[in-house]
Specification:
The protein has 343 residues and is α/β, with parallel strands linked by helices. The protein is built from 13 helices and 14 strands. The chain folds into two domains: 202 residues, 3-Layer(aba) Sandwich (D-Maltodextrin-Binding Protein, domain 2); 96 residues, 3-Layer(aba) Sandwich (D-Maltodextrin-Binding Protein, domain 2). Helices cover 39% and strands 16% of the residues. Strands 10-9-11-8-12 form a five-stranded mixed beta sheet, sandwiched between helices. Strands 4-1-5 form a three-stranded parallel beta sheet. The chain has a two-stranded antiparallel sheet with strand order 2-3. α3 packs antiparallel against α12 and α9 crosses α12.
């Protein structure tokens, strides 16, 4: 039996928790700005198939783009209210720090250095990647460890450049990096024969091979030489917008786990599953804790579908890249994709 003192203490904790949950959440200055202009400003890659690229009519698509659409739908109620700002590797962090963009969603690797020194917070991992190499088949190279003496094209201002140096040193290879500020210049030099190999994230290699003049002439070597968890970033100092950005990504992942798709959301609103009810806002109001309404996640999912749908449409079997999900499968399907619960 609880002592009187302990019972009173627990009652106090319960009351305190209830009061905290009932307090209105402050929107945060970033969300206030977004709502005031009625538009989310999202920094994206200039052109990377599967992640962010614009067609001839200026319509953007890709995994990073879809995340921005989901975020806009959650906070503004309309996935089309996004201004996309194309940024190269050198521009991206300055654009976020200066306030030119609200969020950076540009295939950016989460590292300790970036996490601790850029004044930004990584929202989470949208794609687990790793760095690889591509060569022309005519070189008859089967392994990255056969690149001793080779010139390798690489973009500056990226984790890729340092990874290449580390790989060469660790394997005692005399690799000569040929560094370019813009990725288009690096790939152009590779295709023109200035380099024996081109290195970047494996997803980027697949994208580049797809758009090559003769894709079958190029081989992506088997080695993956790094961990590249790619994800969006927001400015540090606005915990409210950080939380919103984080939970929109989590909602896309958790929705797939519970079988919620773009097509069945309305049907699932009658579900008795408490987990689905919380995601769709038909029972507990999870949005209030984020400074949003209860249908924030429903709108995000209605705009893009769940994580699996976003993946397959942009980089998976329904795309030109046809990448295997691999590590990007859900944690209960053999991958490492795992979202904290919406509860």
């Amino acid at each position: 039996m609880l002592t009187t003192t302990l019972a009173r203490a627990l009652a106090g904790v319960t009351l305190c928790t209830a009061v905290m949950l009932s307090l209105p959440v402050q929107a945060g200055k970033t969300l206030d700005t977004i709502k005031s202009r009625d538009q989310l400003v999202c920094g994206v890659n200039v052109a990377l198939a599967g992640f962010s690229s614009a067609d001839s009519e200026g319509k953007w698509s890709g995994m990073d783009v879809d995340y921005c659409k989901a975020l806009a739908a959650a906070v503004l109620g309309d996935a089309s209210k996004v201004k996309y700002v194309p940024l190269n590797a050198q521009q991206r962090f300055t654009a976020l720090q200066s306030g030119e963009i609200d969020i950076l969603s540009r295939n950016t690797t989460w590292t300790l250095t970036r996490d601790a020194s850029l004044g930004a917070n990584f929202v989470g991992t949208i794609y687990y990647d790793g760095q690889g190499f591509m060569v022309k088949k005519e070189l008859k190279v089967a392994s990255a460890k056969e690149l001793d003496g080779a010139t390798v094209c690489v973009q500056s201002g990226t984790t890729t450049e340092k990874n290449l140096t580390d790989f060469a040193r660790a394997n005692k290879l005399d690799i000569k990096p040929l560094v370019f500020e813009k990725n288009e210049a690096a790939t152009g030099a590779y295709h023109s024969g200035r380099c024996e190999a081109y290195t970047t994230d494996a997803s980027g290699l697949a994208a580049e091979r797809t758009i090559a003049k003769n894709p079958d002439e190029h081989l992506i070597l088997p080695e993956i030489i790094s961990k590249e968890p790619l994800g969006p970033l927001v400015r540090r100092g606005d915990d409210e917008f950080f939380a919103i950005s984080k939970w929109v990504l989590n909602a896309l992942i958790e929705a797939e786990e519970y079988g919620l798709t773009q097509a069945n959301l309305d049907e699932k609103k009658t579900s008795d599953d408490p987990n689905i009810q919380r995601i769709l806002g038909t029972a507990e109001d999870m949005g209030a804790l984020l400074g949003l309404d209860k249908e924030w996640a429903y709108r995000a999912l209605k705009a893009t579908g769940n994580y699996g749908e976003v993946f397959e449409r942009n980089v998976g079997n329904d795309s030109q890249l046809k990448l295997d999900r691999g590590l990007n499968k859900l944690w209960n399907q053999g991958g490492i994709l795992y979202a904290p619960p919406i509860r």
